[in-house]
Amino acid sequence: MSEYKCDSGKPPVYVPHKPVSAVIGASFSVVSIMVANILRLFKIPQVSYASTSTELSDKSRFEYFSRVVPPDNFQAQAMVEIIKELDWKYVSTVAVEGEYGEKGIASFISYSADVGICIATSEKVLRNSRVEDFDRIIEKLIQKPQARTVVLFVDEDNTR
């Protein structure tokens, strides 16, 4: 954005930039972490509408970061509470490779163990998965028909 403004052919007028008050975003936790590290140097607040990494809950590192969605471990805890309420004791899991999927499902498995929920099979969707890889995961899930549900920590594209 230029610091000079021209109206209807008049000579340019200097208009200084206004300082950044805050930043909204990013969507992905990994991007929010990088942005937060830069913004913290300037003490600029950041609010994310979708970043769920529990790492961002560490206020000693991310004191200017806030979010409007719960962190992954809260989501995992809520899923365990729902499964417990439904009195299901045997479930399968699928996680996407990376921090979101792996840490989220690890929290879910940990909370599950605390309340006596057993994991039938735990599958991982790799970053560069092909149709055959998804077919293999589905086959493994089908081999455990006693599992009452499949818990997903997977992004929207891989869910489809």
Description:
- The chain has 160 residues and is α/β, with parallel strands linked by helices.
- The chain is built from 5 helices and 8 strands.
- The strands form 3 sheets. The chain has a 3-stranded parallel sheet, with helices on one face. The protein has a 3-stranded parallel sheet with strand order 7-6-8.
- A hairpin with a 7-residue loop joins β1 and β2.
- It starts with a strand and ends with a helix.
How many angstroms separate the termini? 39 Å
Distinct helical segment count: 5
Order of helices and strands: EEEHEEHEHEHEH
The strand order across the widest sheet is 3-4-5
Number of strands: 8
Supply the helix-strand structural class. Answer: alpha/beta
Beta fraction of the residues? Answer: 15-25%
Largest sheet: 3 strands, parallel
* Overall geometric form: elongated
Mean pLDDT: 93
Radius of gyration computed on alpha carbons = 22 Å
Helical proportion, percent range: 25-40%
Extract low-pLDDT stretches: none
Highlighted features:
19% strand; single chain; elongated
SSE order and pairing:
Elements: E1 4-5, E2 13-14, E3 23-24, H1 29-41, E4 46-48, E5 65-67, H2 72-85, E6 90-96, H3 99-115, E7 118-125, H4 131-142, E8 150-153, H5 156-159
Q: Can you describe this structure in just a few lines?
A:
This protein is an alpha/beta fold and 160 residues long.
